[in-house]
Amino acid sequence: MVAGRFQTALLIEPAPQRRPPLQRLLREAGFREVLTAGSAAEARALLKEALVDLVVTAWEVPGGSGAALIRAVRQGGRNRALPVILVDTGLPQHAVVAAVKAGAAGRLPWPGTVQQLRGIMATILEDQHPQDSARAAPSPGAPARGVAREEMP
After folding, report:
1. Which residues of 127-142 are buried (b: 16+ CB within 10 A; e: fewer)?
2. CA distance 140 to 8
3. 2-135 domain in CATH 3.40.50.10490?
4. Which of 53-57, 62-66, 72-76, 128-132 comes out lowest in average pLDDT?
5. What residue segments make up the domains of the chain, in order of their start?
6. How does residue 46 score in pLDDT terms, banded at 50, 70 and 90?
7. Ramachandran bin of 103, using left for φ above 0, alpha for ψ from -120 to 50, beta for the remaining angles
8. How many angstroms separate the CA atoms of 145 and 149, rounded?
9. Rounded to the nearest 5°, which phi and psi values hold at 8?
């Protein structure tokens, strides 16, 4: 399972009604712990104190934009290589492009599925460890390489 290398996720979502489905999705994908933040300030505080393996963020967050959050993660020492996935709730194309330029590793359409999330996570692992993905056999029932990934422009 892809999430074997991922233990803790940080979910940054200001909309309280979206948090439970996204938390459930992350747990179903194999994360043992899902930390949540509803604002940029909460997210920055959690990133300073907790070790996380993945950030899943909304684009619009109180106290900062998705792009600003992604850039902050990229500039932070131990979090510099931390993968960030953008939750796309119908964002305009320019916002998706800005997220990519800021360093987003993937885009998860709202509400998203476990298969989509696992596909994005598999792609992240391939990007981080290309030599491992060349040797790894797909798990039974897993989509073909790249199929579940949401392409970013």
Report:
1. eeeeeeeeeeeeeeeb
2. 24
3. no
4. 128-132
5. 2-135
6. very high
7. left
8. 8
9. -125, 130
